[in-house]
Input
Amino acid sequence: MRIDVLTAFPEVFEPVMASGMLGIARAKGALEFEAHDLRDWALPGVHRQIDDSPYGGGSGMVLRPEPVFEAVDAVGAMDARRAFVILMSPQGERFTQAHAEQLAGRDRLLLLCGRYEGFDERIRSLADLELSIGDYVLTGGELAAMVVSDAVTRLLPGVLGGETSIDDESFTTGLLEYPHYTRPAEYRGMSVPEVLRSGDHGKIARWRREQSLLRTAHRRPDLLEAADIELTDTERRLIEGALHEHAEDE
Ligand code: SAM
Output
């Protein structure tokens, strides 16, 4: 997978995109990543202008169309694979694990980061998709682009060691993941549940499933309603009990 980003602040990407699993993904060749400076396609002149004041008045500056259109053409032509263009925007679809999974199946992404008051509206015509990382407004699209790049990259084949670690994760199953413990078995009066030390893999799997269901029922009952999860009668009763407790707590 190749990810290109168009931004007025390309320097903010490298520390994140070269660290940990993302750095390893690049070293392994699973991810090619490049952040391009929008000012390379700025209007002619010493100021390397990429923004302008809005028609109709009002505060703030807006990204002009010419640098963005030209940059998308130029960066698009850097590779034969067609880039799926994503505009980072608080007005876009709310980014979820399902988006990450769909995007991980593509060859190439091109992420457009806004700044200032945002984009000239005509820039929206370049996008295949607009994505928001949540209902709040950031100063620019860079952090949002890093969130999307991170969530997508870890799903690429060969990036994470054990493929099963992805299968069990929060949101992948429609449920939140069960709790994890490591050594020591006792710490400041808190102990690791006995079942996890039992060596009985059947029991451990059942405990994990139960914890996953309870945790989702307590913290994110909306996920249980939305997800199409097959439940046994015992699991259904467990969840109903947890939801009942949850309602009483509120
Ligand atoms: N005036 C715009 C509005 O009200 O929709 C907000 C512009 S914001 C200050 C500047 C840029 O940050 C946006 O163009 C977008 O690229 C990025 N941005 C801000 N919040 C975001 C979010 N929640 N998700 C994704 N990108 C965001």
Q: What stands out?
A: The chain has a mean pLDDT of 94. The chain has two domains: 2-153, 164-249. The two ends are 46 Å apart (CA to CA).
